[in-house]
Amino acid sequence: MRVAIVAVGRLKDDAEEAIVGRYTKRFDQTGRPVGLGPLSVSELPESRAATAAERKADEASRLLKAAGPSALLVLEVAGRSMTSEEFASHLRKLTDDGAKACAILIGGPDGHGPAVLKAPSLKLSLGALTLPHGLARVVIAEQLYRAATILTGHPYHRA
Fold it and tell me: Which domains does the chain have, with CATH numbers?
């Protein structure tokens, strides 16, 4: 199953980019034997609409278009908290159910628009803390790699 991280905004920090790149490469190598990968990362520009509601609607439309016909996971503070094992199990279920692609959507500074919030197969919370979007990307890239290691029995995850 192809996996995509589709995010509003671009990484401005070389260190964050390097970390996401490192986990992307590791995920691609580790996930292949269990049908996961490749992982792609797409950045969409922030909306320049006048109001927050218009920005969220514009960004939601573009996020859904970029995700295409994928199983959707939306990063949302009010979403479901999962352990790494539960997240890996969710990815396994998606592949077992025949999903060809999965897109993880990260909204802009104003959050997700209603179209995105109605669409997902899973709203996923990385915790109650507010994270900068770049850091959220780092965390989700690492968790994808961790999920692949859990599914392949690799010793990286030692819980």
Answer: 2-115+124-152 (3.40.1280.10)
